[in-house]
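Sync notes, pocket subgroup
Present: LS, DG
LS reminded everyone that the earlier model was apo-only. Rerun requested with LLP included. Inputs:
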Amino acid sequence: MGARVLANPYTRRDGALWCEGVSLEAIAESAGTPAYVYSAHALRERFRALDAALAGVPHRIHYSLKANSSRGLLDVLRAEGCRADVVSGGELMRAQRAGFAPEHIIFGGVGKRRDEIRAGLVAQVLLLNVESAAELEIVETEAQAMGVRARIALRVNPEVHVANAHEFIATGSRGHKFGIPWGDVPAIAARALASPHIELAGLDMHVGSQLLSLAPYRDGVERLAELARGLQAQGAPLRFFDAGGGLPARYDTEEAPDLGLFAETIVPVVQALGLELIVEPGRFVVAESGALLTRVLYRKLTGGTDFMICDAGMSELLRPSHYDAFHAVEAVRPRGGSSLVDVVGPICETGDFIARDRLVDDAVPGDLLAVHTTGAYGYAMALTYNTRPRAPEVLVDGSRWAEITRRESLADLVRLEAETLEWKEA
Ligand code: LLP
């Protein structure tokens, strides 16, 4: 993918790193560290760029809340006209709380419980994405019991070959747990079409995440279009063609996705089908907007390794240890020079690292580091392991900034623990 038009909101002024018009040092001073910082401008810019690229066909951009479901970011995106893609009753609650209209929400997920399906029906979301015959049956019984017609899309496993950044973020190949196996789709679609309690309104796929090539999209779109044509020929009242998420972010040397080529791959196909296009981007929208601020606590040379021990680690940012993911690390105010180090956190795990064997700006205890491209799947995957409260989240908009999520307190962490036990007799 080519053409890079998206700006990096993190720039240097007078030797230090700023996010838009706010100094990261000032944020760290006031909010403490570790802390997540996001650029509102970057969110808007990415949403607008994608929206403009898809202008050739009626379309809806449903931001995938799983990437980062914090209210402050949702507010920025909703104000832009962005919609929501949720995968749990919890995310549905967050979307509704942030003011997304029910018809601006789609509800997917491979393992929705009955009560979550019911919640989706009660809310009257635009679409419930159904991933199996068994789930269709539950949707049908619940819709019947409520006296409503459930509007659904079938999430199909396109069974395409995807060269993913990591096997854990591959989803759309044969044998993955997601979606209806390709060969089972006609029978399940027939069942949905025959049911008075179901409106089969769309087809959905998600080929994978951090897709650096358009090839799997092209293959998936063709496969989904073939299905759509077959169903339309049988009189299915399809309205939506959901191409999923997967647009990549720049972590290291990756190129930004060429949104023009992305649109050329999808728009004509969806136009020819006479359908509305849905996309569910998560990472593309929020990843590059975010940086994790952390302070160096110690430098320790041991066994030939030079460790920078910081106050953020795998509990704040799980991606390096879980996917061996790369995140650029730089000093907020570089002293000049660099060292080959392991940037690690305080967690009692050898797998607790942010960067390994990396040439990083020299830093001494007290110095601030910025860990980049952490807006997506950073805070959303944060842990409280080792009883470490979750970091605050800060939104920058021009020359203003605000905490959108406060730092968790120690009291928050033990709030659910019973102090006196209410035993029940067996
Ligand atoms: N739609 C569906 C059905 C998905 O499963 C996903 C992501 C998305 C949309 C949004 O995908 P995106 O545009 O963000 O690639 N925690 C991993 C990523 C897991 C993605 C799971 N599904 C990571 O940190 O890389």
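DG: The chain has a mean pLDDT of 96.
LS: The two ends are 62 Å apart (CA to CA).
Action: DG to write up.
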